[in-house]
Amino acid sequence: MKYKNNQIVDAIYTNTDTNNPFIEALPEKVAKQDFIKETTYRPQLLSSEYDVDSKLNYLNNIRAFSYSFDYMYEVYSDLYDCIIDNYKTKNTYMFLKQNINMPSQQFFINSRTMSLLGTPGIGKSSTIKKCLDFFPKMISHTNYKNQSIYFKQIPYLYIECPFDCSVKSFALKIMTEIDAVAGTDYSKIYIETRYTIESIINYIEKMCTFFHFGVIVIDEIQNVVLAALKKKQTRLLMKVVLGLSNSSCSSLYFSGTLEAEQLFESEEYLKRRTLGKRLLPLKKDKIYYLFLTDLWKCKIINEINLTKELASGLYEITGGIPFYIVEMFILMQKEYLLSDDDKIDLRFIKKIADKYNVHVYPEKEGGMSISDFAIKDKEAKKVGRPVLIKENDDITGIYEKAQNINELISKLDEIGLIERSTI
After folding, report:
1. Which contiguous run of DSSP H or E holds residue 266?
2. Looking at residue 208, what DSSP letter applies?
3. What is the pLDDT of residue 48?
4. Are 350 and 313 in contact (CB under 8 A)?
5. Strand pairing class (251-257; 276-280)
6. Element housing 350 (H / E)
7. pTM assigned to the model
8. Which of 194, 68, 81, 198 lies closest to 135, judged by CA?
9. Dihedral sign, Cα of residue 298, residue 75, residue 125, residue 208
């Protein structure tokens, strides 16, 4: 890694053939295997000898469990490209030509605008935050190719829209977050006086230009959209979004639930500016079972075996949404520790789902399952003899014994754990 921390750093230039200090100062793009390593986490397992209170405390730590799905690396790549492309725009090249005598080059007219929408609980926000952690918050430039330069570069700005966020609150949130990361206090002028949408956009444009923002990530955008629909401010919100995309001198990346599509698809010019991935829950396929197997390595209760029956029942309860799968995994063990039940079976987990009202019926239209981002091996062939698995047998051994992905796919297929399309 070029930079040892993700806070404020002094610029280190690599790939110096671009004649662009903004691009050369960015961290190198992380390889997929390194990304998986950095974004995967399992809490340290406790010994079964610990008392009940210690086990209960440990179970709370499982909420930090992180499995690196393939779609997450694609999100990282999209964000990286948004940042890189913004430093190839006309505004950036005009600034560099005036300050470091940069030779004329081809450039993009506008910055990029993308979106990432999906079912709640998929892991969009946590994925974005993990991806942004690969970038420093601010890069200080003082000397480039023996030329003295003095400017700051902010690769990203992350904004989370609060619930029931009005258009006015949305605009103020962007301004205050810019001040927070840039160490300025200009937004108070706008908060304490009357202002127009045009003046806000003008302020954001000036700050993004002065601090050389790479991308502005606007998370939970559906909170603004739903509030605008309720308060009949959709035209005003459209004006803000369009103004930001045209004038902010920064790439924009919107993230939220599929409810935001109500605004994004209402006008063609908005649809063009908000293209991006639409994420749906896991299918009941090999990716789902690989996820379960990794999660089951965190278990503290020996009696919680990953059987075919339990895995299927858990899928029906959670709808294949990772957040609910992890929560049910925690609740199963907590309830077992605190109850008189002597085994964890399908009846037991259904009782827990009823107790905590964990019954999810996610919408599965207009997007792509996070299972489908996995690289598919079209040459997979069946190997070995059929594997006979009973409903109550622990299936984790399949993953441990498989020699390669082809053998794993084959064995899962033989016992009916691969979901096939009916189309």
Report:
1. none
2. H
3. 65
4. yes
5. unpaired
6. helix 346-355
7. 0.85
8. 81
9. positive
